[in-house]
Design goal:
By secondary structure, this protein is α/β, with parallel strands linked by helices. It has helices at about 15-25, 30-45, 55-65, 85-90, 110-120, 140-150, 210-220, 235, 260-270, 275-290, 320-330, 345, 355-365, 375-390, and strands spanning about 5, 50-55, 75, 95-100, 125-130, 155, 165, 175, 185-190, 200-205, 220-225, 250, 295-300, 310-315, 330, 365-370.
């Protein structure tokens, strides 16, 4: 059996030709493929605006910057996430306040978040970053109601969930990243994600002011817009109008641009996103059926509507032994994630073991099984059998 990783990109001949065409075009960066990818992705999730960026971390950072996060601002998020979900607030000088997860969904527990908000005067917290962990969508309608009650903004970290959705109180399907409830949402196009562009990310929003801010911050804080210039025409070197070369840096921004050939790859991958989602959901159903009722399983990813299944997670007894056993069989399962508050950086800020019992218990038992559209039926059966063999 060949190596079976927990995640893997799927590059087709169509993908390759799309990249080759971009490489042969007049633009390698800041060209037409960027806007084309943005428009297609906005249409896919149902948002008004989309801004392509260099990676998911840059997307998070730009969101925090565009919302004006600054020193002393308190922002709530989950400890079960990749560190970037929290780090984006620290980049801006803000304070990260972790809150525990729901042990059944592995998502940030809204009841715990409410307890935090209720325990302090209104205005203590500026924002909430729910993470659509593993591809399961949280109820953002409920979070929007809570955030509005306490004057908070919402950044939806949907890196794991393009194509995922939940149903609102009216029964309407609400796509991750559609902007109906979150102020901003972010996605990643890392190779193990649903849509791969090598590296890359996207921010979606329905707020035009935030959209314009994101565009500016993505490119060094520079804009080219005569209606928004602050310097005079004369200072710019013009007479009756601003000269064509003129631009202004009005904020301290960053270079978080995506290239045209990455956008071309992302566009090609996006064209078969639903096909990949269908396969992920099929794989998830097979895992769920195979492990349901097994005595060594303490919990597993649920088969629920709208789940995008970036990850399929088992909670098991003696996780380390299983992890090592699978590696001897060339099955490279992974652990998602070491709780953020266990990281020495965040421990130095005062967080400690015992702060979040649900997150810590989850970490003690979780293991992510191989999950990607090109995983074959034979390979999945092999994975399932090796997991069961270990505990027999």
């Amino acid at each position: 059996m060949t190596s079976i990783p927990y995640g893997r990109q799927h590059i087709t001949e169509e993908d390759i030709q799309a990249v080759v065409a971009a490489l042969k075009s007049d633009y390698l960066t800041q060209g037409p493929k960027i806007a084309e990818f943005e428009a297609a992705f906005a249409d896919y999730v149902g948002s008004k605006y989309a801004v392509a960026v260099s990676n998911g971390t840059g997307a998070l950072h730009l969101c925090a910057l565009s919302l004006g996060v600054q020193e002393g601002d308190n922002v709530i998020t989950t400890p079960i996430t990749f560190a970037a979900s929290a780090n984006c607030i620290r980049y801006c000088g803000g304070e990260v306040v972790f809150s525990d997860i729901d042990p059944d969904t592995y998502l940030l527990d809204i009841n715990k978040v409410r307890e935090l908000l209720e325990a302090s005067p209104k205005g203590t917290y500026k924002g909430i970053i729910p993470v659509q962990f593993a591809g399961r969508s949280t109820d953002l309608q409920a979070y929007r109601k809570l955030a509005d009650e306490y004057g908070c903004w919402i950044i939806e970290d949907a890196c794991h969930a393009p194509g995922g959705y939940f149903r609102d109180s009216a029964g309407t399907s609400q796509n991750c990243g559609n902007g109906h409830y979150a102020d901003l949402a972010i996605f990643s196009f890392h190779p193990v994600k649903h849509i791969a562009s090598g590296e890359g990310g996207m921010v979606t929003t329905n707020d035009e002011a935030l959209y314009q801010k994101l565009l500016q911050l993505r490119t060094h804080g520079i804009l080219k817009d005569t209606d928004r210039y602050k310097n005079s025409i004369e200072l710019a070197g013009g007479k009756d109008e601003y000269p064509g070369w003129y631009m202004e840096m009005q904020d301290l921004g960053f270079n978080y641009r995506l290239t045209d050939f990455q956008a071309a790859l992302g566009l090609s991958q996006l064209s078969r996103a639903e096909e990949g989602l269908d396969r992920r959901r099929e794989i998830a159903k097979n895992y769920f059926k195979a492990f349901k009722g097994e005595p060594f399983v303490k919990g597993q990813s649920a088969v629920v509507e709208g789940h995008a299944y970036h990850l399929y997670i088992l909670e098991v007894e003696e996780r380390l032994g299983l992890y090592n056993h699978l590696r001897t069989k060339n099955i490279f399962a992974q652990i998602h994630y070491i709780p953020c508050h266990f990281m020495p950086y965040y421990k130095d800020l005062g967080w400690k073991e015992g702060d979040f019992p649900n997150a810590e218990n989850y970490y003690e038992h979780c293991i992510s099984l191989p999950m990607y559209p090109t995983l074959t039926e034979q390979e999945q059966v092999f994975v399932i059998n090796e997991v069961k063999n270990y505990y027999q």
